[in-house]
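Ticket #4471: structure export looks truncated?
Reporter: QA, pipeline team
Priority: medium

Steps to reproduce: submit the single chain below to the structure queue and open the exported record.
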Amino acid sequence: MAAVGAPPPRVTDCVTKVALSISCDNLMDMDMFSKSDPLCVLWMNTSGPPHWTEIGRTEKIQNCLNPRFSKSLVLDYYFEMVQKLRFEVYDIDSANCSLGEADFLGQTECTLGQIVSSRKLTRPLVRRDNTPAGKGSITICAEEQTDNRMVTFESSARKLDRKDFFGKSDPFLEIYKQTGSGWQLAHRTEVVKNNLNPVWKPFRIPIQSLCGDDVENPIKVECYDHNNSGSHEIIGSFQTSLSQIQQATQSYAAEFECINSKKKEKKKGYKNSGVVIIKQCKIVKEYTFLDYIMGGCQINFTIAIDFTGSNGNPTSPSSLHYINPQGYNEYLAAIWAVGNVIQDYDSDKMFPAFGFGAQIPPTWQVSHEFPINFNTSNPFCQGIEGVALAYQQCLAQVKLYGPTNFSPIINHVSHFGRQALQQQTASQYFVLLIITDGVITDMDQTRSAIVNASRLPMSIIIVGVGGADFSAMEFLDGDNGILRSATGEAAMRDIVQFVPFRQFQNCPQETLAQSVLAEVPGQVAGFFNMTSLKPPHSPV
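Actual output as written to the record:
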């Protein structure tokens, strides 16, 4: 998740970045045949009610009333600003982690300053009316991010103990940092099903989250057999240090015996419960969004506008495309709000703008990817003003039709992202803004297009206008879990941000822009760091 907060007047106003680690105890059990599946959502308010903006979410933990979330949430901390935070805990009941279908377990409100000053803040969870929500509590730990280096790991194991009666084991690792108040979870790997010799996906941990600023500090690694009930069985554990791992991996690989202390006490001749192997351990610099922008990376902004018939006749006041006497509709509001922010990162301020779902002249064939200025060789508009003007002129020349297909325009922008990636530089990143009113009709193709785009320097922002059912859009937003194509292929990263415009109708334009663009900085820096692409030139 990107490090975000209220938009500061100047970059230098940001004092520091703060990482928040979250855990809960004694949560309410909302499920009849199992335990709750908790997830925590962080909201921020800097301009008074009702302007709460979602900042990030932890992962969901299955069947657990005392969760320790491994995903920390990073925020920009402004000393001179009151940054109100709200932590909401939910029992997630749907595969796509929809909050609309989740059970609310409780919340707490505080300021970032309160957390920073106390470093560890524990509060009881309350209901929305501020009455006690059962006996649950939440603990938030704050740590200043002063070191932007990351540690990359490749790990596996061999000959782990068999824990399942009818199968093998379903192993995963938990990695802990030693703190003054005990061991703090730094990372949890994925589960490898039915395998005593698992190979886990490569992962990255901020060096500060792993060992602070001392490579000699102890690190604890625990290996578990995953159980759907939430009662995971310990296979074994060991302690080491980053320094020790680095020294061992210089020659070949670091191997550590996984010791189960209870088994060791009971069994004579006990050797180990398997061996955990760290094949690679490297410390790499983590470049920030500003490093890339100040180092010459250009943000290329493309706009796609829904011209399907479900918007209504543009000449009718009930149409979403109707432009009222004040020169306003929801489409224009979204274009202005997002475009005014992102145009500052594009040097020539020339923006390609496309429409989809309309019958276009002269043949009146339906097109799902046409330039709104009708110039196929030069679809660029001069600034956001040019986009707004081209949109208004386009309305009078097309016939709204359908269906609502997203994949053609996503694949169109992906083509340029693929070309940029072949240059092996971090010089260009592409942001596609899709403004739409309806349900996607090519969902399988759209899912595949997004999965493919997740491997490119590209982000997709979807703004939903009108009052339609946008559950499909929320499904595409990777905050709700890993997006997969229709064939099961997983997205490499979360690149979709969905925002319903109606939530921001009575808010300042800046509030919509902040929510819409919140994840872009993290997606830009995350992609280029993941692909080991440095800024084109050193930031000044």
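Status: closed, not a bug. The export was complete when the record was re-opened. Leaving a note from the reviewer for reference: Residues 309-401+411-424+453-466+491-518 form one domain.
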